[in-house]
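Morning F.,

Quick status update on the modeling queue. The single chain you submitted on Monday has been processed. Sequence for confirmation:
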Amino acid sequence: MKIILLTICLSCVSLVAHGQERVLKVTLEGLIPYDTLKCSTVSEYFDKIYYLGKCQTSTNSWLFHIPDTVFEESRYIRFFANRKNTPEIKYIRPSFRIITERDTTSFWSELSFFEKTDTLSVYAQFVRQDTIRNSIYYGTYGTDQIVITPKFDLKNPSLELQRAIVNTNNHYAKYKGAPSNQFYDIFCRMISQAPSSHSSMLLLYGERNTFSLEQLLSLRNMFVEEQKQSHYGRKLDEYIKLLMDKFPDTELTNCLTKQKETIVVNENKYTLLVFSASWCAPCHKLIPLLKELYEKKKEVMDIVYVTLDEPDRLSEWNQLVKKQEISWRTLTVDGKINEIRDRYKVFSIPYSYLIYPGKKKADRLEIRKDEDKLKIENLNLAE
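Structure tokens below.
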């Protein structure tokens, strides 16, 4: 078998002008060559942009040219390979791990890092590959197609790439389920070790709901100014502002009356704002709890749904509301899904805010948690 070098090399130059390109260079070691290799950059709300690599046969490398703004704003990058005359293979999805002196990470198919260096070279050695059949997750259930997941060890990764994978592994694998105060200590150590790290800021923004406002402010202030002014640094500031300032209300369309109205209609009461959708199974499971809370607290608290359904699925949402006999108001974003998600920093659904009387502030709540449910049950208008 011909030995090929697989290198994932990001050539990241300083951000000077909007639209400047970055070079992503990919090469494989210890594997039969692929016919094509493409990557996708995945943004905050899972919008994807695909890039097809240009093969350099002399060096067995693949080059991708990606605008700097796309690079900085992406949450992570995934790779997909293909070989000709293999219709049984839906796609080939490489994943990577890092072996350090202290530990070995899990294999991750997403790489999230962004560095201001002229050239970042990363080498990966083929380890093994898995064949996945009948997978609902990969869309091959009930078909004859398979998904190949080749696994690689990254060799001599940059400090930032190593940091990104190790910290991601620690958060989502090694310390999964740990108490929130332990996560705060982990993030304190992580940021203090590299206050200029893009991947650490990205991870903090992604896990912003894990921390109290005070903890979030403390962690944010540990970064250098350049990271505070980065894309995700500014996003984090927007989220903090959302919790600290008066609630930024907006007009949306009532699903029943088709009239425009604000999210908060009675400023003398609390308003529990819940983002949902007809296709969201966890949202459906939340309905009995919302009904319970509404019956207990409707004298002091309104509930309002905002559905993130596309306009062509709004009928399905209305059918759900009717079937479940939901008595509170429901609003639609009229197709402006990402605009509203960004305005209120809605990463996933169900997603809830408790808006105080007079819209003086809003608390982010996870009402499936006992402490947040108890907070609602203890609401009164004498506060």
